[in-house]
Fold this sequence. Notes:
The longest helix is centred in the last third of the chain and has 16 residues, at 236-251. The protein has helices spanning 37-44, 53-63, 82-96, 114-123, 148-157, 177-187, 206-212, 236-251, 253-256, 281-293, 325-330; strands at 69-77, 103-109, 127-130, 160-167, 171-173, 189-191, 229-233, 314-316. It has one domain (37-305): Spore Coat Polysaccharide Biosynthesis Protein SpsA, Chain A (Alpha-Beta Complex), CATH 3.90.550. It is α/β, with parallel strands linked by helices. The chain has a 6-stranded mixed β-sheet, sandwiched between helices. The relative contact order is 0.20.
Amino acid sequence: MLNITTNNTRQAHNRKCINIWFPCKYDNCSSEISNNVEERIWDILSPRFRLSKQQTSIIKVFSQSIPSSDTILLSAASSNHFNEFQAMVQNLHTVVYPVLSNVTYVFLDLGLTIKQRNLTEKACRCHVISFPFHLFPSWFKQLFFFHWKPIFILAAMMRANKLVIYQDSSINWKAGVTELLERADQLHLQLFVPNYFHNIPVATLKGMFDFMGEQPCTYLPFSQVPANFAIFKHTQFVIKAILQPWAKCAFERDCLIPNAVVSDRNCSKVHNGLHSCHRFDQSAYSILLTKLFSTERYKYHMPDTQKESEGKYVTVDRARKNTDYFRQILQ
């Protein structure tokens, strides 16, 4: 068994909020996350975060397009990210596939051209499905809001016996694939969070905090959790306390996109004020995980992740592209 080391002794940041972009402590904040674990769990399980029967039914219908497997690996892309997707698949074929057995890779087509889809189905060594937009509210068609991501992950969890791995097209696997999956199996959750990352409220609109019944300043000491890579174990706790509340937020316009516009997603520049931009699915994910775990959240962070480009197990490389990998395979 792997000897697991975690960051569970790490605390939320206590530095003064001089540069408010990074995690910091605001002395005049009138609220804080409860120290009572049961209270936090019951809050997450409250009706505001509970899927309706109709919403659950829709996700179950979607899940039937996903094959059952012990471990399900997920990614998604539209036509404008096809070259990044090809580079990611090359990395999977080279690093992940040789060491993993009984894993099913499911790719979600969010708008590939017919030619791109045909190439993918022939060369990817994955199961290609489409998102059933007709089953969901009209605003799901705006891909930049990322409503589809928590729905996709929950649908896959309905078909996974052990683990669900989600990754964006920018993710690059390094060594230690089996070690990382063993960490996920033992801890039930693995989060990819760089040590130097902005806090939650600067990149989250206030309307999302209002929907969740939270004060933004409560979350200033906590870094946002990127939603570009994570591993979830099939447990009732993970499903009911993390994935279902996240999916519920995706269904609720006032939660995921509270008076938001596409331009709000630009968080590339450092700002010195709250609610300067909005990360949609990532903002909701970050609040829910922090609300649930408080400082214990750090226990689930993947170790030795200084920056997005310097992770031990995976890194982020948004410039990586391969324009011809699928054609090369098929020659």
